Amino acid sequence: MELTAKEKATLLDIAKKAIAAKVNNKDIPKLTVDSERLQEKRGAFVTLKKHGHLRGCIGYIKPVKPLGETVQEMAVAAAFHDPRFPSLKPDEVRDLTFEISVLSPLKRIKDINEIEVGKHGLYIVRGYKSGLLLPQVAVEYEWDRETFLQETCYKAGLSIQAWMDKETEIYIFSADYFGDTD
């Protein structure tokens, strides 16, 4: 799904307004989106950075809700419920940059050569443990395919070599990602 510039701007606006309302103890605005694509159920992540450093990132891997609703909910979750960070304070909002990643459906793979660093994100599952890294993470850290697999295993709380085990499920996906700097 290729989003238009207007749809991307709308999603960024939805995320920013939701966080602004929540941080000021106001009701989150009721969603009204006219784009059919923003009403489609899609997986999406909202990433918040403060001065270039991660400040929160949460999303739905699978298409659970309409995209506009997912972005609104995940923006609030990234700002206030990411367990790696304290809840966002009002004075931090002006320092945030936003990035939204709209995910394609997951595709299970058997051959790691299907993974294209820079194009694909990874979702690794073994038993009750799972970890996901977005496509742009591997690019940001200049990882090769094997390092990307190892880091996704690490995020899942698995051995960094778990991707080699037949019991481990490896999924790829692509993402249309955009943000304040686009």
Q: What name goes with the CATH superfamily of the largest domain?
A: Hypothetical protein ph0010, domain 1
Please report which band the strand proportion falls in: under 5%, 5-15%, 15-25%, 25-35%, 35-45% or over 45%.
25-35%
Order of helices and strands: HEEHEEEEHHEE
Determine the fraction of residues in helical runs and give it as a percent range: 25-40%
Question: What is the overall shape?
Answer: globular
CATH C-level name of the largest domain: Alpha Beta
Low-confidence stretches: none
Task: List the domain count as a whole number.
Answer: 2
For this structure, the CATH topology of the largest domain is: Glycoprotein, Type 4 Pilin
Question: Could you explain how this protein is built, in words?
Answer:
A hairpin with a 2-residue loop joins strand 1 and strand 2. This protein has helices at residues 5-23, 67-80, 135-140, 145-155; strands at residues 44-50, 53-60, 96-103, 107-109, 121-126, 129-133, 169-173, 175-179. The protein is globular and about 50 Å long. The chain has 2 domains: 5-103, Glycoprotein, Type 4 Pilin; 107-175, 2-Layer Sandwich (Dna Ligase, domain 1). It has a 4-stranded antiparallel beta sheet, covered by helices on one side. A 4-stranded antiparallel beta sheet has the order 4-7-5-6. It has 4 helices and 8 strands. With 182 residues, it is an alpha+beta fold. The model has no long low-confidence stretch (mean pLDDT 95). Helices cover 27% and strands 26% of the residues. Helix 1 packs across helix 2.
